[in-house]
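call fold target=Lipoprotein
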Amino acid sequence: MLKSLLSLAVLSALLTGCASSSQPSFGAKLAERSVEADKLAKQWQQGDDAVKKGEKLIKKGQSLVQEGQQDQKKGQSLIEEGQKLVENGKQQMADSETGYQKMRANPIPTSPSTP
């Protein structure tokens, strides 16, 4: 019977102590920390995913810029080659026209035909 009274007194003291305490229990504090840690872990993972995606985009962008620079050089080379061809072609056309004018100015003499 003494054990029962002692147990009842301890239980009563615990209940009174818990009821009058306004601070959260260790378990509640631990659960709160767990929620905070989970939020931080999710935030970190999102950041890590963003970094990985960003690094891939940077690498792809750099590759495209490099290809674009190479294409630009090829394009500039084609333009220069085309301009030279146009210039040379126009000169050939002008020379041909001048030669034709000279040819028309100096007809080939024909031999007299015999009747």
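return ok
The two ends are 167 Å apart (CA to CA). Residues 25-102 form one domain.
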